[in-house]
């Protein structure tokens, strides 16, 4: 007999929660793809959100620091403008990792597409 969802949590809330988990790993892939050209954090945040990759600053900035520490990004302060900004760009190793993640992504999309076909 199938179990029902706990009454205090709606299907919509569970779907939203699971969708957030699903998206979490895609932010790294999106950052490595977008940072082929230097961008500062807030511009990157807006680009991601405009593209439908919803992330907030409390998630993005620690992620950028972690990717830099791992050697996948480089950063440089631009102090030419009135407000100093830290620009991030993918490193050579980050480009290689990004290309590998893109291949993995395409393989995963193909696999999930096969698994979720209606006429299985």
Short structural description:
By secondary structure, this protein is mainly alpha-helical.
How is this structure best described in words?
With 120 residues, the protein is mainly alpha-helical. It has a single domain, classed as Winged helix-like DNA-binding domain superfamily/Winged helix DNA-binding domain (Arc Repressor Mutant, subunit A, Orthogonal Bundle), CATH 1.10.10.10. Helix content is 58%, strand content 12%. It is built from five helices and three strands. It has helices spanning 11-24, 26-34, 41-50, 57-69, 92-115, and strands at residues 39-40, 73-78, 85-90. It has a three-stranded antiparallel β-sheet with strand order 1-3-2. A hairpin with a 6-residue loop joins strand 2 and strand 3 (85-90). The longest helix is centred in the C-terminal third of the chain and has 24 residues, at 92-115. Residues 33-95 form the Transcription regulator PadR N-terminal domain. It comes from Streptomyces davaonensis (strain DSM 101723 / JCM 4913 / KCC S-0913 / 768). This is Transcription regulator PadR N-terminal domain-containing protein.
């Amino acid at each position: 007999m199938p179990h029902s969802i706990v009454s205090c949590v709606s299907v919509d809330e569970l779907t939203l929660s699971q969708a957030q988990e699903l998206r979490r790993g895609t932010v790294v892939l999106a950052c490595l793809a977008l940072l082929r050209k230097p961008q500062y954090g807030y511009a990157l945040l807006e680009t991601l959100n405009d593209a439908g990759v919803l992330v907030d600053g409390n998630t993005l900035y620690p992620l950028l620091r972690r990717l830099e520490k791992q050697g996948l990004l480089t950063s440089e302060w631009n102090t030419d403008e009135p407000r100093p900004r830290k620009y991030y760009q993918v490193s050579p190793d980050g480009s290689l990792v990004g290309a590998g993640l893109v291949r993995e992504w395409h393989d995963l999309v193909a696999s999930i597409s096969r698994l979720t076909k209606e006429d299985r």
